[in-house]
Amino acid sequence: MIDPHLAGRLGFHHRMPVKAPLPPGRHALGLFEERDAVLVVPTSIEPRRPTPLVVLFHGGGGSAEKILPMLERHAEARGFLLLAPQSQYPTWDIVIAGNGPDRMRLDTALTEVSSRFLLDPGRLAFAGHSDGGSYALSLGLTNGDLVTHVIVSSAGFMSVQMQAGAPKVFISHGVRDEQIPIDRSARVHAARLREAGYDVTAVEYDGPHAYRPAVAAMAIDFFLVDNDPG
User: Fold this and answer.
1) What is the Rg, in whole angstroms, of the alpha carbon atoms belonging to the chain?
2) Which of 66, 82, 90, 100 is deepest in the core (most CB within 10 A)?
3) Taking the model in full, what pTM does it have?
4) Beta-bridge partners for 153
5) Which tens digits make up the pLDDT trace of 93-144?
6) Which of 125, 132, 138, 204 has the alpha carbon at shortest distance from 171?
7) What CA–CA distance (Å, rounded) separates 203 from 219?
């Protein structure tokens, strides 16, 4: 049988916090000497009350600094933690050779966040753009007993060797994307996921290989709508 870790299974489990929470703002977590994970803490959260978490994966050649603007203002406005891991190499391990160091680094980052904040097990999303979208989709479906929502922007592929749980999936893609044409990516992914029984929301927009702020806002509504008061 395949090693579950090589298939992308995470070892992380929800737990009670044991460290002091971090104050509001952006924080490098101090876990890695290079390309450290970054956590955005909004001003409105109460660290010891269950808080939603979005893990946001950058695109190929990207970084936390480049991808955080996609969702950072929503984290502040809507009151969720935003974690931006960074791949050890220019893009995610699964794109290069398979699950390895980036999966281990993600486990470490999730454990650190949960040691400082009480996470809501009913609201944990994996999100990403381009290669980060492919990574979010692949690991999200592989760890669907942990990940409740998957938010995918302009993803090229999904690599799933083991499936668990049934996360809700939000897929968005520009119809004028020449780098990753929609006909061989988002439309195929949405059809296959629906056939497999997943709850899929698919949004197509008139644009190139770039996320749209308005569509990102729709994705956060998709993630949080059931949690909003009233």
Assistant:
1) 16
2) 82
3) 0.95
4) 129, 172
5) 999 888 899 999 999 999 999 999 999 999 999 999 999 999 999 999 999 9
6) 204
7) 9
